[in-house]
């Protein structure tokens, strides 16, 4: 294996370079400022399974680099292999950077471990000394250590550590380091964080106001651009252009020219309106979009669904008390499909959709005038439509126990297949509520005691759900409470979330009241996070949770990986975290927030820079994973914490500037810039090594 690498390896450089560019943003970070990702199968050369910064192609490239080094000593070869594989570590950006200086060798753990180290006790090993003791007199072809001493004149491509450094102390002073709360080091195995140290909550959330409108929904344009769809309660859907971060510009949204006008169909009132919008996973090809709204059958002839209070659920609509002096099931919940393809235009360039329904997906009469949720989402991995439905309301406490009634679709999360539409005869035979089919792997398709559409049950009024863009199996819903507790739930297939037997973690009603439920109380799934009403207001009943997103943008690196949610009335915001990841251990903290002094639209404030948001209706996420708050007073975007004088140790303040017309591509943070330098430097080293030019 000695001598120059063979020319065929030059081809692998291009593959390596392009594949490294394809990683997605995450924290911990890879050396190219992009995200670790979940491996579907373990790597074969590097010892990484689960989350990694390398895919299988990169794993092969590292193996070839290792083989080209021609390390004859087996113990040293094992160490060199592990150091090469550190590039695959989910913390590689930190391992290969000190301050803002990129490195070609990871920070090697020495024996000086901080008392408040965030890393596992393995980091107490003096790995740097081990590297020196094992490899100091071993020749390594095109050694990465030689590049750390580029100022030395080396006669051969084969070098030893002893040729580069006088002694172990010099070597470890140059390449060693300790783990602390702000940094990690490499000890020969994938970095493991200390599970006993829960990260401190961010110091605050900084916002800028970029729009004045009041909206219930925001959906990033499926084409990946800087555009997004917004919808309001009245029934309008708008297409908007989101300004670059730091541009000082406002959102470009023309309310006089809606993308889709459904106001003739939508009945808008306190808890009625256009409740959800969703775009087909193949929208760019097929132009299919979906709207969830409420209608009034006394106003619109298309409002003709079956009543949710029926004999199947032991409910007689003629005996339902009216909560607004209206007939039972006068108001209905509808999901309808629309299209941009009526004019033959490319969906990605379409500026409007035809208001005529392509098909009615779902229609169901509501027993009362509250608690009907209505959000719709497409699953990121299965492509099915998830439809959130509340318990139907009433006086209080789900008086007809719809949520636990397994033959009722109230108080449920449904999962529908809108790509395979049965015939009318089949729909009637199966008793479906519209033009959809039931996914074959829905949890209760084989249980006649359940409606097959049910994906999860025991919800009161799920208000805003989302899938984590990094971990799509994390399906999170906020569920509005009754008297005491507002909850955040991790939704699983077939899960029962307890209402009305439990309100959050507390008993609400006797289990004997849960008639027609085939699930006993020991099977209930309790919230992962939440808050009591007394935390936000002394007057009970003044709280109502609004679900948000796992924050996956690098704009606020201290917020990364935390789940953001708020309260409709209180104007309070929480950030929750699972620590360690995949442990099931969650904590949440109410966090302060301010409006940036240089906000494109001046914020209405309560005191000094504390924005008066009004009602927090919803959250949104754009294609860059920046998060937005949709409030009564406007549209707010989460921005760099330093713009509000919040401290974030992961944000480099030397490159923070006031908003200007400068494109965001030229105004990225020094944190991202330094990580990109690591990527460039290490890629150049790999290039030269592969070409045999070092």
Automatic annotation (TrEMBL):
GO terms for molecular function: oxidoreductase activity. PANTHER family: HEDGEHOG-INTERACTING PROTEIN (PTHR19328), HIPL1 PROTEIN (PTHR19328:SF13). GO terms for cellular component: plasma membrane. It comes from the Eukaryota. Belongs to the PQQ oxidoreductase GdhB family. Residues 260-573 form the Glucose/Sorbosone dehydrogenase domain. It is found in: Cell membrane. It is a lipid-anchor. Its main location: membrane. InterPro entries: 6-blade_b-propeller_TolB-like, Glc/Sorbosone_DH, Quinoprot_gluc/sorb_DH_b-prop. Residues 1-26 form the signal peptide. It comes from Trapa incisa. Its cofactor is pyrroloquinoline quinone. The keyword Metal-binding does not apply. This is Glucose/Sorbosone dehydrogenase domain-containing protein. Keywords: Cell membrane, Glycoprotein, Lipoprotein, Membrane, Oxidoreductase, PQQ, Signal.
